[in-house]
Structure of Urease accessory protein UreF:
Amino acid sequence: MSINPGPVVLLQWLSPAYPVGAFAWSHGLETAVARKEVTDGAGLEAWLGDLLLFGSARTDAILLAAACRAKDMAALAEVDATARAFAPSRERLAETVEQGAAFCRATSEVWGGSLPRLSYPVAVGRAACMHGLALDLTLHMFTHAFVSNLISAAQRLLPVGQIEGQRILKNLGPLVSDAAKNALTSDLSSLSSACFAADVASMVHETQYSRIYRS
């Protein structure tokens, strides 16, 4: 019996152990906690749910899909330029660019092939295409990892324990699936964001006095 290697590869790429430095970024959540916009597990779940429905979790999935579908390097460069332009703040731009560069470097060295310096969702989409991984599974696992990483970040900032964090991740499962499915039928013309509080939080974080995270 042959085993499809795709899920195993994605588990490694999107693992907290993969050297992209995801642990160093909070996506503006640190400021939201400092300003008491997110104070507990229920608030965290609502914040992440909005990102999945209306914000960066949704748009990153669309960018990943567009990168996977790019027919040539010129089209890929256009997707990457769009991803960078869509970052609402200096720190959010650094977050996607630095994680993307780290992902490209590690994936090229371990799996072979040549990946240019790309923003993070674009890098994952390009790598999935290069290695023949299923786009639907890649989208789902990437979006799940996005949410999981922010829950982990929040657990260093809020009184949210491991069990509650896992409950939040479970509760957000349907929205993770919806974001992945939406990206499958979307293109760059579908990009939009209405999570203004999250965007502003990422801007304020740039001058926040006391910080744990880089964004």
